[in-house]
Amino acid sequence: MKEAERLDAGIERRGPDDCWPWTRATRKGYGTIKVSAGQLGFTRTTDVFTHRLVFRLTHGRWPEPVARHTCDNPLCCNPAHIIEGTWKQNMEDKYERGRDNHPKGGDSARSALTDAQAGQIREVYARGGVSQRELARQFGVSQPSVSRIVSGRRYVA
Fold this sequence. Notes:
Blueprint: H1 2-9, E1 26-27, E2 30-35, E3 46-49, H2 50-59, E4 66-69, E5 82-85, H3 87-96, H4 115-127, H5 132-139, H6 143-151
Antiparallel strand pairs: 1-2, 2-3, 4-5
Helix pairs in contact: 5-6
């Protein structure tokens, strides 16, 4: 199969326990390779992530629904490092391995409040006597924003 040969030519093989990086085209940080129409069940030529193709060639089927890297290296093509999993498992991997690099709360450039202001809102609301609507007016945000802050869904303390 020519796809297997082209895939193999783009992989830098190392030791059996090491990552085997893809050395050619990438998209979104992952290796990609074109698979020709009529090959591997595709009706048209399409780009495929290399780690998914490695799984397919190793196991004889496509991963359902996703192929995950146990090594956390998106360019790795070592079959020993690629396992099948769910979207949820893939997202859990992302968070556990610290790849959730989107700033939260007051660290976000889009944030209307600092973490300290969110803390003030929580404190004032917990003492009672001030409505969420009034806190929203005082801090220049919406009442639903205040609700998410006091419930812990935003600006988690």
